[in-house]
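Bench log, entry 3. Co-assembly request; chain sequences pasted below exactly as received.
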Amino acid sequence: MFDLIIRGGEIVDGTGKTRFKGDVGVRNGRIDAVGTFGGDARRIVDATGRVVAPGFIDPHTHFDVQLLWDGQARPALEHGITTVVPGNCSLSLAPLKVDDRKRLVGMFQQIEEMPPAAFTEAFEWTWESFGGYRDAIAKSLAVNVAPLVGHSVIRLWVMGADSQKRAARPDEIAAMQDLLRECLEAGAVGLSTSFVDVDEDLRPVPSRWAHAGELDALAAVLGDYGRVLQVVPEFYNTDITIARVDQLAELSLKHDITTTFSPLFDSRLTPDNVPRVMARVAEQFARGARVWPQVQTRPIDISFSFEHPSLFFARFPTWYRVMRLPRAKRIAALRDSATAEQLVAETGADGGRFVMGGLVVRGGEGAPKALEGRTLGAIADERGTSPARALIDVSLEHDLNVPFLAANLGHEASDRIGPLLADPHVHIGASDGGAHIQSFSTYGDTGYLLGHFVRDTHHLTLEAAIKKITADTAEIWGISKRGTIAAGMAADLVVFDADRIDRGNERAVFDMPGHGMRYVRDAVGIDAVIVNGEVAYRNGQYTSAHAGRICDLQGART
Amino acid sequence: MKQSRDTNAADGAVIERAEIGGGHDGQAELVVTLRFPGGGRSRVVLDTMAGMRLMHNCGVDHAAALVGHPWHRILEEKRSCSI
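Structure output for the full assembly:
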């Protein structure tokens, strides 16, 4: 008797081989049989006409805090994500001394837009050590977790306030090595570091104060354990990013470690960025180094309002000047008819139809429900005015607190992104799940991959795309017994309709602690998500299953 | 021509182009193309704060007006910039 049989699906097993029709039998949380076999089960999931794939693994998330009150990592799970890697970009919630909590919370708020209440209302801090944090989240997981430990918190633990003032002494580096060993022993999948992030006071985070020798010493420890180094390079400049690729390659070769950096993204304004970086990545792979660039699937959308300064307005001098006025004067200027006429005139003879007509009114705290999701062009038509005038009027009607969305402002050219995602040296990731929550939705990237780049543009076969987000990811990160459908593997499975899978429209919800707002996208075309043999999501509903666990990792070398 | 030793190549870089793009963090950013005295070009992407500081230091009120300004202005103090 099986615990579960997923019957009659097209199995895409994660290895890249051609799909085949068959059943998947699950027993004790593991896949026990695949193909055609007899026997009955306590539960049957009918997958006729559906694809059955390994659970998707998201290697770049910031669910560190959310996992303490939401072990399902909503809405990632409903998109088929069964394993997440939190702790990216040098920040994790452990190891952390009690006295340093406030400082770290400030960094999380600055970098990930996590509201203060998320750290004060939703859970009780019970740990200082990495193992303590691991135990705190492990109590109620519905997804699997392979947590990174952040370089900034290791530095903060050892050096205190000096972690943001100076390079480390040799004794401090040795102490960091000891602490990293302790974290790896407690289940950390690797170390994350950042060369770009700042704290709430706009000071470089602790990891940015490290000299190359410190990172080399920590990489040596990673080498002892066969663990991963994740890096945020200076992605604002191609030459510096390439220099980081070279640095990572040297660390990879010297210490025999896997390294990955994120993000790498394309833009029509920087068209040579990706080709140049990927050329160097290929060169380093040819030398034997492992330097995986993480590339996101979704295009970059930006948002802005008249409430906060934005470079979106920097194309037009009067808009830029008005935006920078003190708030009361800003409102007065927008209300002034002569100024408003000047603003509209600056956007072109079409009243901004070309440059602003496609902007969308986003949901959010002050956003008018009746206008949510509508374009300024449509609103202008309804009001008998121009899109630029509509932007001004809608903003004034709601005390400036109306966010607007400019979609596809980067990483948007499918004919460039599709081949990039298919590149054998590209690691699909960089979703940032659980971060930037008040700026855009970081959920549904896998649905977008399988809907857009597989079904619509055919840049990847379904088998190749699934492999990229399952078996390849497990191998890169050294995650044991996950990522493929085969006997003996963990029963992490996704059942979906290949003709429908997609990401839903972005919407604002108020489900963060303290009624905090965030943007999410619902899953489309996902029938069931199974984690360690338990059905965690089925037909649009989350279940009470909490079978997630801290991931086992491939064996340490020492 | 041989450069004097105290001349930093970056000192001579001039902004050749400035455009608005979309950033990884969901904010608009300023993409600046630099032209160096030797003929080389480089692009730098500036976030909201850095971009507005550059515009302030150059005394301009729109991105296109940055063209022709020296790149070293990015290094000037924030002074009275309100960002």
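Residues 1-10 of chain B have pLDDT under 50 and may be disordered. The interface with chain A takes residues 19-31, 42-49, 51-52, 55, 61-65, 82-83 of chain B (CB under 8 Å).
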